[in-house]
Write a structure and sequence with these properties.
Radius of gyration: 39 Å
Low-confidence stretches: 16-25, 369-376, 545-550, 589-596, 607-627
Strand content: 15-25%
Helix content: 25-40%
Number of helices: 17
Number of strands: 25
Mean pLDDT: 78
């Protein structure tokens, strides 16, 4: 009995740990299995059979498919050759740069797509504490021309300044004609003044002011619209292409500020592009970091409405956090991926693109890029690593880009992602180029990431630095702005300009595993069973066919094992019960009445203290003698049908093992 109790406790403990996600395989082993599976899928498919984007991410993650990716290009200038695309070209530049391929031609092609964004309306503001007499000059037909106007004490402008500058906003500003966006404007006044540019998205009521405000004391200021995008098909701005290209420009040390007005202002119109992931890299702003982390679903993954699915969107969400440790959301995502990892080590039905992107974002590895689909001709021993029999034999990091004999794989025993980068070994710091307050040091590597080496330590912003207060989990920032500062733990928010109030949720959708949104993403369907706090949103519940995180099979296994344990512990009683049941079905228990209809119940003599009716004879009790008493026959018990029961119990024991 004690052995049975111990077995029961052990099984329940294991199942409970598995269900809660506490029990999982070692991270290094799981990542090695993922890399081994990805390399196997790439080799089995052959790089030449992959599309351009798959080759790009395969090269980023494993160092394979370099030759095939170059062959996809138009003279190694843009990708794909038949229909050059800004987004795919930018991604190809990132992948090829990671294996030391010269990408100057491709970068120049991307820069050649730069154009003025016509998605924004631009305005010129001139201001002073006094009335002004001013001139605004710009080129007209190749000739520099000036136009005079006055600004009264109530800030209103007296006249237009040619065709490029017409009065707007109740005559307080000049509106700049779209045909003049590329011109340079020179402003001069008779008194001290300031000038700046403002912009807003078309059909929007929100105005944005550029950070560079110019001032002059009786002199001149120069204003020029410095807002660009990359122009795609038809000459219109390509938001996703501009986002990826700007990220690559930032990685290469190029100035990206000229793309920010367009990317920031029009971001609400491009939710499916997941703009926050790119804008956090480009600005290092806590606002965009907060937006990314707040979009995590069920503390596990990201799935953006209209995006490319949970695996791709999760990889994109984690891209800005390459090399970042201690982030709770990142740890949660890793645990989720290990829980849904397939037995062969891959995710997402062996999709090469999403598996490559996930591994590059979360567990990037150094790649040599030594060739095409075969993985190159650099041997494992050449780089000081060891050849092992299989992934389970590698306690560090697998490097599929290096050759081993026979079916062996190359292993770095010291791997696992804990090593310092070349930049950090020199005493410097890795981070976004946008976050570097000093000088970028391109000669020192930050490993296989999009980060750059900076000679200054980034400034850590805390909630107290912003004069805010920390709201705990279950509270929200009321009357202020909730921001994710660097020292916060999961669930906390820095509330700036407001107070922390307890959350009173009116949404039953999210508490039941659903999403509240204006439209349901792929794999979800509208449910009328639950409600959202915003009446304009739909409650989107995951469809059964979309899978991804269901634990029903664990419950089934739990109850099956529980039934087996109970059967083992109470096998004697079960055996006795089965014997009785069979005896009843086989003709009754010993001494029982034979089958057939029952007669009336036997009549018993009246009690002795009851007086008989008058005239009725009193019956006399006759006690038979021993000679007249019929002999008592002993009933032989039926033999036990032990064979069938033993067979059942034997099977139950085998299931218990």
């Amino acid at each position: 009995m004690k052995k049975g109790v111990m077995l029961f406790i052990a099984i329940v403990l294991v199942l409970t740990l598995a269900f809660s996600g506490i029990l999982k395989a070692d991270e290094v082993s799981d990542v090695n299995r993922a890399y081994a599976c990805l390399n196997e899928k790439i080799d089995a498919t052959n790089c030449s059979q992959l599309n351009t984007e798959e080759k790009t991410f395969a090269l980023l993650a494993t160092g394979k498919c370099k030759t095939e990716l170059l062959e996809d290009s138009f003279n190694e200038t843009c990708w794909p050759a038949a229909n050059c695309n800004i987004e795919l070209t930018a991604k190809a530049v990132l992948a090829l740069d990671s294996v030391d391929v010269n990408t100057t031609s491709a970068v120049n092609w991307l820069k050649g797509k730069k154009g003025i964004s016509t998605d924004l309306n631009w305005y010129l503001q001139i201001d002073s504490n006094k009335a002004l007499l001013c001139n605004a000059g710009y080129e007209v037909g190749g000739t520099f021309t000036e136009y005079q106007f006055q600004i009264s004490e109530d800030k209103k402008i007296s006249a237009n300044a040619g065709e490029c500058l017409t009065r707007a906003n109740n005559d307080y500003w000049f509106g700049i004609s779209p045909n003049c966006y590329e011109k340079q404007f020179q402003v001069s006044c008779n008194e001290s003044f300031i000038s700046t540019l403002l912009y807003r998205e078309q059909n929007s009521q929100t105005y944005n002011i550029l950070n560079n405000v110019h001032s002059s004391s009786g002199g001149i200021t120069i204003e020029r619209i410095d807002s660009y995008c990359l122009l795609g098909v038809g000459g219109s701005c390509d938001y996703l292409g501009t986002s990826w290209a700007s990220t690559i420009f930032d990685f290469l040390g190029e100035n990206t500020s000229e793309y920010l007005p367009y990317l920031i202002t029009t971001a609400p119109n491009h939710i499916s592009a997941f703009p926050d992931a790119f804008l956090y890299i480009l600005t290092n702003s806590l606002e965009f970091k907060t937006n990314i982390l707040n979009k995590q679903i069920l503390n596990e993954y990201w799935q953006i409405p209209g995006g490319r699915g949970k695996y791709y969107d999760t990889a994109l969400a984690m891209l800005p956090f390459q090399g970042v440790s201690g982030l709770t959301e990142k740890t949660n995502t890793k645990n989720w991926l290990f829980n849904v990892q397939q037995t062969n080590g891959c995710w997402d039905n062996d999709n090469v693109l999403t598996n490559s992107f996930l591994l590059y974002s979360l567990w990037p590895q150094e790649n040599s890029g030594g060739g095409g689909g075969g993985g190159g001709d650099i041997f494992c021993s050449d780089v000081g690593y060891t050849c092992v029999e299989n992934a389970s034999a590698c306690t560090g990091t697998i490097h599929g880009e290096y050759e081993c004999g026979d079916t062996q794989i190359c292993c770095n025993p010291q791997g696992g992602g804990g090593e310092l980068t070349e930049c950090e070994l020199e005493g410097y710091t890795c981070g976004f180029a946008s976050a570097c307050e000093g000088t970028i040091l391109p000669e020192f590597s930050c490993g296989p990431t999009i980060q750059k080496c900076c000679d200054t330590t980034p400034i850590i912003t805390t909630c107290s630095d912003l004069n805010g207060i920390i709201c705990s989990s279950g509270e929200y920032c009321s009357g202020g702005s909730g921001i994710s500062t660097d020292e916060l733990t999961y669930g906390q928010t820095c509330c700036v300009g407001g107070s922390c109030e307890p959350v009173v949720s009116t949404s039953t959708c999210e508490s039941n595993g659903g999403l509240c949104d204006s439209s349901c993403p792929s794999g979800y369907e509208v449910s009328g069973e639950y409600t959202c706090s915003d009446s304009q949103d739909f409650c989107c519940m995951q469809t059964q066919s979309s899978g991804g995180g269901s634990y029903w099979w664990i419950w089934v296994l739990f109850f099956l094992v529980l039934a087996v344990v109970v059967a083992i512990l109470y096998r004697d009683k079960i055996k006795e019960y089965i014997q009785k049941l069979k005896a009843r079905r086989g003709g009754g228990m010993p001494g029982s009445r034979p089958g057939g209809p029952r007669g009336p119940p036997p009549r018993f003599p009246p009690p002795y203290n009851r007086m008989p009716r008058m005239g009725a004879p009193v019956p006399r009790k006759i006690i038979p003698s021993e000679q007249n008493r019929p002999p008592i026959q002993k009933v032989q018990p039926r033999p036990k049908p032990s064979g069938e029961i033993d067979e059942v119990l034997k099977k139950l024991k085998e299931m218990g093992r």
